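Justification of computing resources. Each target in the renewal requires a structure prediction run like the one illustrated here; the chain below, 314 residues long, is used simply to show the kind of job we budget for.
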Amino acid sequence: MGADRAHAYGAAAGLLGDLLLGDPRRGHPVAVFGRAAAAVERVLWHDHRGWGALHTAVCAGGAVGAGLVAQRAVRRCPVASAALTGVATWAVVGGTSLAREAQTVGRALAAGDLTAARARLPHLCGRDPQALDADGIARAVVESVAENTSDAVVGALVWGAVGGVPGLLGFRAVNTLDAMVGHKSPRLRRYGWASARLDDVAGWPGARLTAVLAALAGPDPRGAVRAWRADAAKHPSPNAGPVEASFAGALGVRLGGTLSYAGRVEHRPVLNGGTGRAVRVADIDRAVRLSRRVGLLALGVTAGARLLVKGRGK
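Resulting structure tokens:
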């Protein structure tokens, strides 16, 4: 078994592990990394882009370095290499936890329990839940499912195919750093700049692949492509735009509009506003099913592409 087949088998096993087991309740590797990154931040923080870039380099570089050491340690044993890839893939993807959290909010909304839905929403995204009614929460959940399909599943598989275990760990490290320090709060506007920009670069290929696969796997491929072409560039995020627009068109709903983060109100362009309808509670389950199909297709595309490219290079 060659290295590329070992990667394909390992990635498949890791994604299957996520589907069957989800994330551990305690001691998740991403949470461990987050605590380490927070400790580094406490030491390095200055209101300066240079110090933030150093923070990004130390944390993301450390994750990549750990992946390189582990990968080299098992490179002579294909079975061990596949097992390492499987564990790393399981550790960095989060499709099952994403689906569970989304469906938990959906069940609360379906039961008319707006208080429970608001209490659970922060597990998915950083919106101000008290500022949202039931429809607003449902829209926030669908948008979060779309964006995190790229961030928590497809992007990791892409970088795993490109860089093996170091690619998997590096991508999750960059994505986690962006969530921790990449937002535009007064304290982190400059310090988190490098993490935010690096996350934009790392997320670019996964976001485009997610948008393509959402169009292919969704109930309205033409609608997905139309919304992507018409509205993606209007979104303030270069990566969330294509993904959310494609999901909106595929599901036939409107996404975007007014939202609130940490008391700051933003008025974002509406995605698929011409033909889409308002998001309903039932659309949460539809978005989750689409997300799962996209994740499985992404596994096939990334593993197949790695095998094809490496095979031609021999």
